[in-house]
Sequence to fold (218 residues):
Amino acid sequence: MSKPPITFEVLAKNGEARAGMLTTRRGVIETPVFMPVGTAGTVKGMRFEVLEDELDARIILGNTYHLWLRPGVEVVRKCGGLHRFTGWERALLTDSGGFQIWSLGALRKITEEGTDFRSHLDGSLQFLSPEISMEVQSALGSEIVMAFDECAAGDAPPEISRTSMELTARWASRSRARFDSLQAEGRDEGRLGETEAISGAQALFEIVQGGAHLDLLL
Fold:
């Protein structure tokens, strides 16, 4: 049986709080954890040596939306994945791009299929869906992949939050289906362990929506 992409062990509890250990193919991450945001694969104004030696950051975040638009998936893929593209050797989590799409406001249109939007870089028409988000994150080669979500405002009324939550749940199912197929393709092609830009050895995390409405946070 192949080794799971990540494992998680609860080390201690205090009421509802807990401390744990998340193990990835690139090392151990103690939780709760501070995860610096490296939108384009790097944390602005900070060298990796500082992140590693002074902050001991075990994981950073990269963003699907921004990396997809610039420098583009093919550029990162040809470099061997986001780790090799940036030189970061510890774990990576890639956001799905859902929040960035939501933040475009009037520049985007959300449908059941996905989101049509205008690029903030050049105004070109683009389309992002659960399937495309999974394909981009697979090429980036992150340890943790986030499901594609529709993000409503935190103060949205209950009916808007419910609609957003239900769409996110449907998109999560589509994200999982495409994610699983990419994992299978990676295994069938025997690429696991050969490069960092692989479709296997990744874990898919869900995103919980519902705003501030406790009855939706199930």
Notes: The chain has six helices and ten strands. The chain has one domain: 35-216. Strands lie at 7-14, 17-24, 27-31, 59-63, 91-95, 108-110, 115-118, 125-128, 144-146, 203-205. The domain at 35-216 is CATH 3.20.20.105 (TIM Barrel).
